[in-house]
Amino acid sequence: MIDVLIADSQILTREGIKSMLLDIIDIRIIGSAKSSGEMEQLIVELKPQVIIIDHDYNNRFTIKDIQNVYSNHSYARILVLSNRAAKNKVLDIIDLGIKNYVFKECSREELVTAVYKTANGEQFFCKNTFETLFGSKLLPEREEPVNALSSRETEIIQLIAAGMTNKEIAEKLFLSIHTIKTHRKNIIKKIGFTFKNAADLMSYTNLI
Predict the structure, then answer these.
(1) Count of domains in the chain?
(2) What is the residue range of 188's domain?
(3) Residues with Cβ < 8 Å from 168, sequence gap 6 or more?
């Protein structure tokens, strides 16, 4: 059973989420919070596995609140459910370590999948979040499959997505920084989009 806490200042959103998840037999809504103070109290009392949170609606729930959950309640996993946001705002949240992010316009199926993935410690972005990050064409149409990446390139992608710098990757793999940069250029050619940091690769790492 997955115990879920909803943190959103809008009562219609809280009740809507409850309604969408009500008949999922192994998901249980154990509480809902309309403010960060109430959320903190319920986390301590109920110990939810998953917290569905709107991170910035009217500043009731902020990035700082997410950081506090990570710092004080390591057993809880966070699923961000927000209104559609600009790419830079989504990346700000992902850079905190958030692996699960869906927009409120997502489908019921996406929300349910997101809850399961969050509870299991797996990554999930809804289709619209993915498109916000990478454009309407999720992956380029290519003849070569995703596994055309070499084992070394796959390893480097995982390390980049984990937040490591070129220097750190070079030291870990006993390679030169120049070699790492060359691998990154080859990865860009194969996957079809550029990336600047860990957040830009978060969604891609489920595909390899």
Answers:
(1) 2
(2) 146-207
(3) 159
Which two structure tokens, joined as six digits, stand for 92? 């700000």
Report if residue 141 sits inside a domain: no
The whole model's pTM is what? 0.65
Tens of pLDDT, residue by residue over 155-190, are 887 787 777 888 888 999 999 989 988 888 887 776
pLDDT in tens, 74-116: 888 999 998 888 888 888 888 777 889 999 988 899 999 999 9
